[in-house]
Amino acid sequence: MWYRKQEIIKMDKQIEIAGDDNKNNIGVLYGIGVGPGDPELMTLKAINTIKACDIIAIPAVSKDECYVYGIVPSFCAAAARLGISLGEMMDEIHIIPASYDVRDTVGYGGTCVYMKSGKKLAELIEVLRTGDAIRKKKMTVYGVTNCGMESERVYRGLDELTEAKGYLTIVIVKYS
């Protein structure tokens, strides 16, 4: 789907810009990332580039079906909200549903992201506390509940994390 000012122009197999008689025009194509999903977290450069473009192309069948921000995984949005990176250089990143047996993750390194931790949060916190002695690695713990919603809460450290409530709690553990 292409957007030109307010006019929507459907594209088929060939790329044609409606109203342009000269097919040899050369333009510039900008690829713009949408950030972690919250429109308020897009960079100013991205917003200014979009504003300056005559044509905006997005991967959607129709304007109603386009929700570009929905493609960003929630754990990326949580990391952005916390102001942390998920991995550096060759760090491993493990995405773990908290419904799994989290005790099996004690030996993992890098970054562990526990998804939907709400119901098993107490167990996860206990595993992290007791497993820390086994690992002998520095561990930094973060959490976000209801990321991107009005009821969003951010937690830093195991002590703060004990206050978390809600099924949509993402716990990020970084080992070094």
Structure overview:
The chain is of the alpha+beta class and 176 residues long. The protein folds into two domains: 2-71, no CATH class; 74-175, Methyltransferase, Cobalt-precorrin-4 Transmethylase, Domain 2 (2-Layer Sandwich), CATH 3.30.950. The protein contains four helices and eight strands, in the order ββαβαββαββαβ. The N and C termini lie far apart (45 Å). It has helices at 44-52, 74-82, 121-135, 158-161, and strands at 2-4, 7-9, 55-57, 93-97, 111-115, 139-145, 153-156, 169-175. The strands form two sheets. The protein has a five-stranded mixed beta sheet. A three-stranded antiparallel beta sheet has the order 2-1-3, with no helix packed on it. It comes from Agathobacter rectalis.
